[in-house]
Amino acid sequence: MAVKIRLVRLGKIRTPHYRIVVADSRKARNGLKIEEIGRYSPASDPSLIEVNSERAQHWLKSGAQPTEAVEALLKVTGDWQKFKGIAGSEGTLKTLPARPDKRVAYEAAVKSAMNEPKDGATTMKKRAAEKLAAKTTPAEETPAAEPVAVSEVVEAPVTEAPVAEAAVAEVAAETPAETSAE
After folding, report:
1. Rounded to a whole number, what is the largest CA-CA distance in the chain?
2. Cα 128 from Cα 143, distance rounded (Å)
3. Which of 26, 75, 84, 93 has a CA that sits 20 to 30 A from residue 53's CA?
4. Is the per-residue pLDDT at 154 higher than 60?
5. Rounded Cα–Cα distance for residues 53 and 75 (Å)
6. What is the C-alpha to C-alpha distance for residues 57 and 62, in angstroms, rounded to an integer?
């Protein structure tokens, strides 16, 4: 039986994912497989390549022939160099940096939110800002009342007294019968 190490395609139309499998060469690409030894996802950056090195070495020693694509992946992981006895068996595989724990990130976000001002919204609506400015402006910007000299008060002309007397005279001129008629 001719055994091949090849890729089985999974995923959607433009988002392929592959499994690295050992299968009979006479079977269809996605047909019956003997064993799955890894996976490959070219969509992420850097590409995700996971290979069970022990099982790959076993199948290579047993005579399984890798396809060109799988051979390139095995060279990246260093398994091909290890099988051939060539220097560079550590491979050139790039890995993603470790993701921060979700709980730690959440707690940090909560702590930073607690330190924010408690004024409410970050930006107020225009009318609300104007009302707040109107309330705070007279109280804050009005200077303390300066003491007024008594001489200044006495010197002020009195113009309101004649007007007030005329208004009282008009009200008195009206008779009670006229007010009830209206």
Report:
1. 129
2. 25
3. 26
4. no
5. 12
6. 8
